Amino acid sequence: MLMKNGEIDEKKQGVMGVFRDMEWLLHAIKNIKERNVKIDTVFSPFFSHEVQEALKLQPSPIRYFALAGGVLGILAGFGLASYAHLEWKFITSGKPVLSWISFFVIAFEGCILGGVLATVIGMIVKNRLFHFRLPEVYDSRFSQDQFGLFVTCQEAEVDEVSMLLRDSGAEEVRVVGK
Amino acid sequence: MIALRKGLGPWWVVFGLLLLTGMVSFFYGIAGPDRQRTWQVYLINFLFWSGIAFSATVFVAILNITNARWGRPLKRLAEALGAFTPVAFLLFWVLYFGSESIFPWVRDPVQGRESWLNTVSLFTRNGIGLFLLTGVSVALIYCSVRGDLKQISRQTGSGREGPPEEPSNDPFWHAQVILSPISAILFCFVFSLVAFDLVMSLDPHWTSTLFGGYYFIGSFYSGLAALTLLSGLSYRPGGIATELKKILRPRHLHDLGKLLFGFCLMTGYLFYTQFLVIWYGNIPEETHYLIQRLYRMPWKTLSVIILLMAFGVPFILLLIRRIKMKPEALIPLSVLILAGMWLERFLLVVPSLSKGQEVPLGLTEVLITGGFLGAMGLTAGLFLNRFPLLPLSDPLFQEEWKRIQGEMNHGS
Fold this sequence. Notes:
- The complex is a heterodimer.
- Helix content of chain A is 47%, strand content 14%.
- Chain A is of the alpha+beta class.
- A five-stranded antiparallel sheet of chain A has the order 1-3-4-2-5, with helices on one face.
- Chain A starts with a strand and ends with a strand.
- Chain B is mainly alpha-helical.
- Helices cover 73% and strands 0% of the residues of chain B.
- Chain B is built from 16 helices and no strands.
- Chain B has helices at 11-31, 35-65, 75-82, 85-94, 99-102, 104-107, 119-155, 171-199, 211-233, 250-281, 284-294, 299-318, 321-325, 327-353, 363-386, 395-409.
- The two termini of chain B are 21 Å apart.
- Chains A and B meet through helix 1, helix 2 and helix 4 of A and helix 10 of B.
């Protein structure tokens, strides 16, 4: 799970802190935010609302994909039902040809189908899948039981940021991209 | 553990006056020429407010059944609404005196259905059902409150402070775990029975098997709206239980909003399921009930308004995340839902009884509804005044409390 402010640039320079505990990670994010240093990426083995809140990230835009897909699905459902009824003159049990009450069922199914498909597409697009190369700073431990906090900074700040990370409880601090 | 104080302040007077005017207009109504109209308003209000009270208790039961942590800070608020359940049980018996005005089959017995539709048998079966449901609800609330009082007296006790009891040994928690599923199942059965007997029998030739389910889900929806209103009000200065806002996080309202949205959909869905089947089957015995309400004036306009108030507007607005997290938005929205569900109960009852060309919505309706609101407000207020605002002894609340404290420390 990557949670990032910016794009991952393979040639970025900065400091990577490795954390064992979520509490410490949140603590570090707070400290770094206070110093106005830019957090590039947070690596976590699982999704966490706390980290998202601490980073003050915008909520995921995927929900707009789902909404748009759902609305389009409703329209498509009504469209399909109306078209089929008009084209082949479906008259069932004496009801009008365009009987909206029963079309709701098809519109509802269309809503689900459209919403689901749009969500999957949105996820693929926004996550920029499919990556075939992992970010340079990635460590396999971030997919197991550790958290990573990658901070970009100028060379002059490296020592200060490293200290800050270590003070905030990082198990391991490593300078990247020099 | 923090102890919270809460006050009703000027609300005592407001609720007291509402109750008083409601009672006066009720007695004035049943003594005067508008006897039938007064009784039907009484019935609507009994259905609406007992629905809120019992479903608030079921909300607590559902929290217990699902081992939910998120809703624990709201548990006492739900129980405050549930404190109305014994009152609702008493109010049910008042209907007995109005059965001649309310039930059309008292004067014209329905051939072949006399053994089910007669006053004695109706009040016996509903009385037993409501007695059991009230008993279980009160026992559930009692166990929850009793455990807290015990814990508080232990904390402030005179010297003989023992170690806090393990959750597995706490008899009150154990009793809640057992009572919760019973209360939820009983609620569904008893409220289906109430729907069949007190609402469907008003039009004795109309039957719908799903009506019971639709009715209790609708009741639960209005119960959730009432709980949302109460939680939202705790953020307002001068509101009830204002101290609660110190510990409620935005996610609590968000989760409550999501649940409200879910039951908005569920209620709309059950209405549609019934409507579609009756529309498709097109059998005159079934359709007359819907045609009268949805296609004939004066009820047609009202049914569209109800559809918007109880389903359309809340559905669209509750899609928006920010609205679910803002008490300023949730308060008017839950009032809208409650008003919509009250009118929905009105639409279920009145067209079966009133043969006039106008919708009987006037001062009588407002005053008697106000009386019930006063009674609900007083019981909930008394309950909140008497007991701690947080379910301190609830082991799942203690877990949630740790999480809340953690969040406060991180300043998120």
